[in-house]
Amino acid sequence: QVQLVESGGGLVQAGGSLRLSCAASGRSFSAYTMAWFRQAPGKEREFVCDISASGGRIGYADSVKGRFTISRDNPRNTIYLQMNSLKPEDTALYYCAGKRISGNGYTYWGQGTQVTVSS
Fold first, then answer.
1. How many angstroms from the chain centroid is the CA of residue 46?
2. Is residue 47 classed exposed, middle or buried when 0-12, 13-18 and 19+ CB atoms within 10 A define those classes?
């Protein structure tokens, strides 16, 4: 199966930036819709953004639109999340996820990388 490994999380001050990466192993990465989710303590897992297999379609949650940018590099089997103008409410464990184009849900998940935004 596809293995996803996130990296790039850390501690940053409000207003700062971080760039997360998600490296995929396995075949057919270019055939998957990819997404970022996040989960803060005591809260439900939240959709952040997604990107189509080709990179041609991108969607963002309203809470991050204009601040976060998702991208993918299919030859490197990697997706990225550039996070700018970070807010304390962005603090969460960030997960990378993949969905087959023909699938009805995200079936591949990374282990998560922690993002902490201090005030």
1. 11
2. middle
Extract the tokens encoding 100: 């087959």
State how far the Cα of 14 lies from the Cα of 19, in Å rounded to an integer. Answer: 15
CA pair distance 119, 109, nearest whole angstrom: 30
Task: Kindly report which listed range (32-36, 42-46, 50-54, 103-107) carries the lowest average pLDDT score.
Answer: 103-107
The DSSP 8-state label assigned to residue 31 in this structure reads G
SS3 85: coil
As beta bridge partners, residue 3 has 25
State the DSSP code for 56. Answer: -
Give the span between the Cα atoms of 9 and 30, in whole angstroms.
24
Write out pLDDT tens, residues 48-63.
Answer: 999 999 999 999 999 9
Taking residues 25-31, what's their average pLDDT?
84
